[in-house]
Write a structure and sequence with these properties.
2 strands
Length: 249
């Protein structure tokens, strides 16, 4: 079968802004996302921090893209094995007894079997380059899900990034409205150190210190603005100016 060439990842502006505000590398965030997408968690009803949000994000994209199931191009020659492995993974994922971390680990040989048997159509390489300096290592779970749903890795990654908006989140928070965005909650956890090596300390410049102080002041100034979209747009403008200032220096 003819392989489909992958495409360059397009990083949304608001995701760039979010990573700049929280001083985290884009590639690092995307790597944590990839590492927490698993076949096990697509079938588990039990909440598992990080895994549930990441896997649910992928599922949300697939449901939005596909109105009905389509046959996987990569799995055409291994459907019997795929069905058998998925059935065994489901048994583990729905089993009440046992630790989640242990059950998820037991699915690895099953995922490996699917990975080795499938044809690499959309995930030609295990490494996805953002630029010449940064790359993402695609897990076998992630690759299998891409191939199962006929999706490029970039589709899942861009959908994840597209759900991140600090301005929207802060606008909801300022108006004490529920911000029902599990993907952004996952992003915040990553910003707080989840899934990352946070031993490295970073220093804030005087400009950054002034910006964070200005953020607090602006949230108070915006109290009189009760329209959600207007508030979000004001914050979006401020955060964009900050991003442009620090990236131009």
């Amino acid at each position: 079968m003819k392989r489909i060439n992958d495409q360059q990842i397009i990083v949304p502006l608001e995701f760039n802004v979010a990573c700049a505000i929280y001083k985290i590398e884009i590639a690092e965030v995307l790597q944590v996302f990839v590492d927490h997408v698993t076949l096990y968690d697509t079938m588990s009803d039990v909440y598992n921090e990080g895994f549930s949000e990441a896997t649910r994000t992928v599922g949300s994209y697939v449901r939005a893209k596909r109105k009905r199931p389509v046959q996987s191009k990569a799995m055409r020659n291994c459907r019997a094995l795929l069905i058998s492995c998925l059935s065994n993974i489901k048994v583990l994922a729905t089993k009440k007894a046992g630790l989640t971390i242990v059950k998820r680990k037991k699915t690895r040989p099953l995922v490996n079997m699917i990975f080795e048997a499938m044809e690499r159509v959309y995930t030609i390489s295990d490494t996805l380059y953002l630029d010449e300096y940064s790359a993402i290592k695609l897990s076998k779970d992630f690759c299998v899900l891409c191939e199962a749903h006929n999706c490029y890795p970039k589709e899942f990654l861009e959908y994840f990034m597209g759900r991140i908006s600090v301005a929207d989140a802060h606008a909801h928070k300022g108006l004490k409205l529920i911000y029902d965005n599990y993907t952004f909650s996952f992003f915040l956890n990553i910003a707080d150190g989840f899934g990352r090596d946070t031993t490295e300390m970073f220093d804030l410049t005087d400009y950054e210190l002034d910006f964070y102080e200005r953020m607090e002041e602006l949230h108070l100034e915006l109290y009189i603005i009760r329209d959600l979209q207007e508030r979000a747009n004001i914050l979006r403008g401020l955060y964009l100016l900050h991003y442009q200032a620090i990236t131009q220096n």
